[in-house]
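Can anyone check this?
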Amino acid sequence: MATRTLLYIPIVHSQTDMGTLSESVRKITMQKFGARVWHKKVNIINSFWSAVEDTLNRISFVYEKTRLYQDGIPVCGRELDIVKDLAKNGSLNHQLLVHLIEKGATIMGTESPDLLIEEYQLTYLALKSGDLKEAVRTQAMQKDAGNLLLAKRDTFIANRIDQTLLPGETGILFLGMLHNVANYLPEDIQVQYPMQNLSDKRGKGYV
């Protein structure tokens, strides 16, 4: 029986990926670290995505049998439109998705819309003031709720992959580093980590 393969790409989010919360993220980061560190972080994120693209370019894919699963993309029927819009706005993550789609890969709705709304609401409450101390205080209060929500999202994503990734196909999962979807996947899906070396550099600016 043909196996199912999933390439797990732990990603870092850029300011563009944060959408309407991007300015609050920038303000809080500037308060905590200063302008120099903010610009360094931007450069590190750009380098990270270049490394991801280089890594995937070295792997031989049958693109017509490759499915793309993306952090933050809901099951909604407008997945491709969302990816293209974010790519046009400058998201390196979604520009890479467009590149893979143009080669023949298929973008999949990945997340529960309801759970994404919950995630946005929690994040909005933490970041809306644009103040570092307030954000830290709110995040501490939300810790248990945030962990439970993350587990629910991971369970949904794993089920979605199981339901849509067919024997003989390859999935590429782009997902934030705090997630742990692999724990919820069935045993017949072979999970590979082509970016393992970069993921191990979390203490060096990749988060």
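Reply from J.R.: I decoded it. Helices lie at 22-33, 35-57, 79-88, 92-102, 113-127, 132-141, 143-164, 196-199.
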